[in-house]
TrEMBL record:
<dbReference type="GO" id="GO:0017183">
    <property type="term" value="P:protein histidyl modification to diphthamide"/>
</dbReference>
<dbReference type="GO" id="GO:0061685">
    <property type="term" value="F:diphthine methylesterase activity"/>
</dbReference>
<keyword id="KW-0853">WD repeat</keyword>
<comment type="pathway">
    <text>Protein modification; peptidyl-diphthamide biosynthesis.</text>
</comment>
<dbReference type="InterPro" id="IPR015943">
    <property type="entry name" value="WD40/YVTN_repeat-like_dom_sf"/>
</dbReference>
<keyword id="KW-0378">Hydrolase</keyword>
<dbReference type="InterPro" id="IPR052415">
    <property type="entry name" value="Diphthine_MTase"/>
</dbReference>
<dbReference type="InterPro" id="IPR001680">
    <property type="entry name" value="WD40_rpt"/>
</dbReference>
<keyword id="KW-0677">Repeat</keyword>
<comment type="similarity">
    <text>Belongs to the DPH7 family.</text>
</comment>
<dbReference type="GO" id="GO:0005737">
    <property type="term" value="C:cytoplasm"/>
</dbReference>
<protein>
    <recommendedName>
        <fullName>methylated diphthine methylhydrolase</fullName>
        <ecNumber>3.1.1.97</ecNumber>
    </recommendedName>
</protein>
<dbReference type="InterPro" id="IPR036322">
    <property type="entry name" value="WD40_repeat_dom_sf"/>
</dbReference>
Length: 392
């Protein structure tokens, strides 16, 4: 019996798959249902003229009746950006924002583009039903500064600061020229407008004295964790960015992914091309010791996603190794002590690099019954899957 419930082929190469992990309510005509908004962002290079185009598609994956993931489907795709409208998109992230309308869920999706800018798009779910073609409303909010010469670096990744409030948030972004940037994002709950302002930019990673790719970064407490192709990950105190507070080289290859814990503000995970993951507590940083250093997980680590409410589970996108779910033992009681890990699920249907992965989780407010699944995408074969994240 196959582990996947639905599959599709994307028109372009998908490299980012992001969900609102715990579902929202939408009204489609006379039908009210709970869905997981799932955004698929794509990047494609034209070999003929070396141009990069992209696309952005939204799926509203319905929460199945009865809390069983057996019948989950992607459903109809809604194209948010066509290839003719955007450069390549390398990453994207959701964040919830304040809504001025009662019973409406308001979200912002930020995207990292091959032309170097960050774009912001708003989405509103669950408003009063009308004759709209789509069960949501979406508006382009704005973007960061664009390099008019078109010779600037690629924006490789971005992450929202998970601790920021709803009206003023912060984004950390990384670039192909070795730099990291911090942006303040201001939302107006009355007008729905947003403004993104770059506050800090610094050279973070070099290889043989040449700037090298910073593949990922996240914000943990008052520090930025940056991951470079130079094989190092660095902690930068946001209050004093002239030099890193820690430089760690625990991997045997470039460092590709940083992910802050969804509930514990002190915990973060980093992954590498060398197929392993390290987990740290920022209060007990050491150049020689981490809470956990896994062995090989089957492929280079490109995505690490913490479970939204089972905080000892992480979903991993492991490139040519497919995807897996790790259970961590002892993370909730750690005071700098070691954490054990177990692989509880492997998903190997992808036939090329698994770059995107995320959770789809639901907890019934009345019965407290929970269900979960996962979605993932792979780049070269353009495949996208919905699959069972646990056995049984």
């Amino acid at each position: 019996m196959t582990d996947w419930m639905d599959a599709r082929i994307s028109d372009l190469n998908p490299c980012s798959l992001e969900t609102i992990t715990q579902s929202v309510e939408v009204i489609d005509g006379d039908d009210t249902s709970r869905v997981w908004p799932l955004m698929l962002s794509c990047y494609q290079l034209s070999e003929q003229n070396s141009t990069r185009c992209g696309s952005m598609e939204l799926h509203l994956v319905k929460v199945p009746d009865g809390g069983s993931p057996q019948s989950m489907e992607f459903g109809k795709p809604y194209t948010i950006l066509f290839p003719s409208e955007t450069s390549g998109i390398l990453d994207g992230k959701w964040t919830e924002v304040s809504s001025s309308t009662q019973n409406e869920s308001s979200w912002c999706f930020a995207t990292a583009h091959s032309t170097g800018e960050i774009r912001l798009q708003s989405f509103r779910f669950g408003g009063a039903s009308d004759q709209r073609e789509k069960p949501f409303r979406t508006t382009f909010l704005g973007q960061s500064e664009v390099d008019e010469t078109k010779n600037g670096p690629l924006c490789l990744s971005l992450n929202w600061d998970k601790t920021a409030n709803s009206d003023q948030k912060r984004i950390v972004s990384t670039y192909s020229n070795g730099t990291v940037e911090l942006h303040d994002v201001y939302f107006s709950s009355s007008t729905g407008a947003a403004n993104i302002v770059r506050k800090e930019a610094w050279q973070a990673h070099t290889l043989f004295q040449t700037p090298t790719e910073v593949w990922s970064a996240c914000i943990v407490q008052d520090s930025v964790v940056s991951c470079g192709d130079d094989g190092a990950y660095k902690l930068w105190d946001i209050r004093c960015l002239n030099k890193p507070s820690h430089v760690l080289r625990t991997f045997d290859a470039g460092v590709t992914c940083a992910s802050a814990h969804v509930a514990d503000p002190n915990i973060f995970a980093v992954g590498s091309y060398d197929e392993s993951i390290c987990i740290h507590d920022i209060r007990f940083m050491s150049d020689t010791h981490s809470l956990l250093k896994t062995g090989s997980l089957g492929g280079g680590i490109w995505r690490i996603k913490w479970h939204p409410y089972l905080h000892n589970l992480i979903l991993v996108g492991a490139m040519h190794g497919g995807c897996c779910v790790l259970e961590l033992e002892g993370l909730d009681i750690t005071e700098g002590s070691d954490v054990k890990h177990y692989i509880t699920k492997e998903f190997t249907a992808h036939e090329s690099m698994a770059y995107g992965a995320d959770w789809l989780c639901y907890k019934d407010p009345y019965t407290q019954k929970t269900m979960e699944a996962a979605a993932s995408c792979s780049f070269y074969d353009k495949s996208v899957y919905l699959w069972k994240s646990c056995d049984g």
